[in-house]
Amino acid sequence: MKQCIENPNDVDWVGFWGEKLANKVDKDWDKAAPGFFRRTRKEDYNDALFEKLILDENDTVLDVGCGEGSITVPLARKVKKVIGIDSSPKMLEYLKKRAYENNIENIETILKPIEEITYEDIGDVDVVVCSRSLNGIIPIDEVLQELDKIANKYVFITIFGPENKKIEKDFDKRIGKQTENFPDYNYFFNILFNMGIYANIERFDLNNYREYGSIEEAVDNGKFRLDLYSDDEKEELKKYLSEILTKDEETGKLYNVKDKADWIMVWWKKN
What is the pLDDT of residues 137-175, one digit of tens each? Predict the structure, then answer.
């Protein structure tokens, strides 16, 4: 007999979120940092993100899970100060390198896991930006509570959309491996709703697919969990990509029209 829930607000969305991530294997972000720093992708994510952000030149911004600075540095050009927080020393090393190469001097960095962010450590900022950094976070409700305290004006978060990881899921199905099972964005929205945060939801209209100079570049692009694949599975991945990627005769680049990002922006204005 099915259990009847009289009040939808009684659904334990935080618990469902945690169950989805119960078998998550954390990535070695220090090891991944060099690849993230050197890659340039044909994506319109950054343009879509900055089109939605509400920023003032006098704002202080907290960039949560800042990584190697692909969002942090453009943010720093638009605001008074950016605080970048990340758990990977190597990522922050590359962020500082990117800032130096771009003559950016208004970035402060903090080495700390997202799960350990507190208002007491950060204090007040105008805007919190969490770009592609909260999909695998537990305990998600506690982190969101702290981020809401920290922001004085706005919180902007991007998480996986329903059509993200199409190529990866197809390949994992081919080799009989379970793809990382991240919670859907509706979990996220309902967690916020039950916290009394009534967020806006927007889906980015991204059109650009990814392009690669070679099969090797397509393999080592950060989307596939190579650390979880055996040598035989990596060879199978090369074969798979050789089958599905098409060469653009004008540019010489390899591509697949399904190989593009799908992101949801969740944001709210502080009262």
Answer: 999 999 999 999 999 999 999 999 988 888 888 998 999
Specify the number of domains making up the chain.
1
pLDDT value of position 23: 79
- Cα 38 to Cα 21: distance, rounded to the nearest angstrom: 29
Two tokens, residue 48: 């879509």
Q: Encoding tokens for residue 168? A: 């990866």
Please write down the long-range contacts of 162-170, taking CB distance under 8 Å and 24 or more positions apart: 162/262, 163/262, 164/261, 164/262, 164/263, 165/223, 166/258, 166/259, 167/223, 167/244, 167/256, 167/258, 167/259, 168/223, 168/224, 170/244
Helix (H) or strand (E) holding 95: helix 89-101
Closest to 25 in 3D by CA, of 160, 177, 163, 145: 177
CA 26 from chain center: how many Å?
Answer: 14
pLDDT per position as a tens digit, 108-125: 999 999 999 999 999 999
Domain that holds residue 61: 9-165+181-210+261-269
Alpha-carbon Rg for the chain in angstroms: 19
By the 10 Å C-beta count (0-12 exposed, 13-18 middle, 19+ buried), 194 is classed as middle
pLDDT (0 to 100) of residue 24: 81
pLDDT of residue 175: 92
Distance, in Å, from the CA atom of 229 to the CA atom of 224, rounded to the nearest integer, reads 9
pLDDT, mean over the chain: 90
Q: State CA 164 to chain mean position distance.
A: 11
Query: Inter-axis angle of helices 13-20 and 185-194, to 10 degrees?
Result: 150
Which of 71-80, 112-121, 214-223 is least confident? 214-223
Q: Which one, of 59, 86, 73, 17, lies nearest residue 155 by Cα?
A: 59
User: Residue 82 maps to which CATH number?
Assistant: 3.40.50.150
Let me know if residue 100 belongs to a domain: yes
